[in-house]
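quick one, 199 residues, struct below
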Amino acid sequence: MRSIGLTGGIGSGKSTVARMLVGLGATLVDTDAIARAMTLPGGGAMPAIAAVFGAEMVAPDGSLERDRMRALVFADAQAKQRLEGILHPLIGQECARQAAAAQGAMVVFDVPLLVESQRWRKMVDRVLVVDASETNQVQRVVERSGWQPEAVRAVIAQQASRPTRRAAADAVIWNENLSLSQLEDEVCELWRQWTADNA
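---
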């Protein structure tokens, strides 16, 4: 089984590419979805988050106060490290569990911070980067999520630069002004190449 690390900046179209790969037969391991599950009511990370950050980071229903935590970790690098210290080991364990249960020729790890975390590059056979201009990234996130443009730019500033991300890639999809059909064509071509390599 081949393992692919899928990454890209916010608003790049990475999640759309992930869905296309699943449609082709890949098993998706979504680290963002795992992290969200860990911070829902009763989630595995919540006791440690409450202990480290205090009750103000726990919503009345027992889930993470996401907006408050997002504001904290953007403003305080040490707080970000503490949160990652809680989440990353738990996410790693669940990723390993899901990958071990995967069927088929390819497992795709959707990891927004793949380049930043370093360790992921050693854990996958190939890295696929979905890229787009900052202008398009901002526009897409504003349209889909209702964020203010400056909030999107703040997230982009925290992520790896475009040259750094591209330097870590085995393949790049430049998702700029592509129709969904054109994007799917590019995904299918990569799938064909990589499954042939694995045959």
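The chain is about 60% helix and 15% strand.
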